[in-house]
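Hey, can you fold this one?
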Amino acid sequence: MGLAIGIALALVLTVMWAIVSVSRAQRKTGSPVQDALVDFAEQSLELGSVVEILGFAGDAARVVFGAERAVAILPVDGEWEGHVIGADGVSLGKVPAGAKGLFGWLKHNPVVILAEDLGEARFGAMRQPLRQLMDFAGGDAILPVVDRGEVSAALAVKRSKAFHLDRPVLALFQEQTQTACANARLHVEASHAFSLAREVSLASAFHDSLVASARAGEVGAVKWAGDVEVAGEAGSDFWCVYPLAGGRVLMVVGDSVGSGLAGSMTSAVVKSACDLLATGDRPLEDPSALLSMLSKALSHASAPVHARCFAALFDPERKIVRYANAGLQLPYHLSGGELGVLAGGGPMLGDAFDAGYRLYEVAIAPGDMLVLSTDGLVRAEDAARKPFGDRKLQKAITPLAGKSAGDALTALLEAVRAHRGDRPLADDAAVVVVTIG
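Sure. Predicted structure:
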């Protein structure tokens, strides 16, 4: 991103330097017309769009060079239209159908075309469309404006008999108009690059707040290790852990619907709400009630946002895990060498203000392992774009019985990376391994 901004700024500065340098060199001649072109070139640097530059160029052609008429021909919603430049600003409507194909030819022939040139054999089949365009615009000179190999506009001019504009002057005028238009585009691209960089930086800051401060931890018999891998510049998947009284642990894994800044902000809202509800003197310990409160936080009527979330309360003393699911990937439960899932689900967070979530309960025992993850893990693709999938994930989890949470997490991530090779993630992936001691 920093390289893109640097290139954009360098191009802008290069264009500005070229225009000013050429202008200063031309001013040495002392010709009134060339001095006027110098002024045009320098002042056009301050304009921010092709429309403004063409309007300025048309005014220069009429006021400075004595042209009787100037018309800007621009694409509007895919159709080329003509607009008389001046105080009246009359629209001429759409370019005649017979002249529409002319713009594809002009990008390969981006030269000043005068009415007296049309008898030349080089124009061939384009002779009639060019006449149509000149008649439409009421001009006798066409100056195509080409940027990055495409015609972005055209300026049609009706020259004055009293003030003759020869071809070299018109060609220089065309070149300066094109350069000014390219400069305006580069300014827009540079501005967009800065805006995008700020958004990515903000999204990254939001995501940093989502990542658990410690990758691994333990409370009594409950041990865990987790990781988040981001698919792009900033992610939205997260997991968090809240130790509670009596050796219990509340764990939440989530994934917002959306990407970039929007996704990161949604997940930041969910995690911040979790932090508020699950900590303090009276923490909310019911996973189903927690999800209901989170859904309320996201389901504002005017602009609802959505997230998938799984919340679980591990209680090793009572040998149970109680959980609720708001549309997240089903967690796996490895117990006694047998692999199962924590079945059950519910609507995504934000689907409804009064969404209710069923509370499920499953027995756990020492030696059990649970794997909580977002769908980015199973969506990881290999070089042939084949996803890792649930079946491979199940095969990777089953041999992990008896391993520590950290070792199991490492083995799972290595299995996914071996499948991916050099291919980047298709989606963010969060995974947490929990073991019961």
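The chain has a mean pLDDT of 82. Let me know if you want another pass with a different chain boundary.
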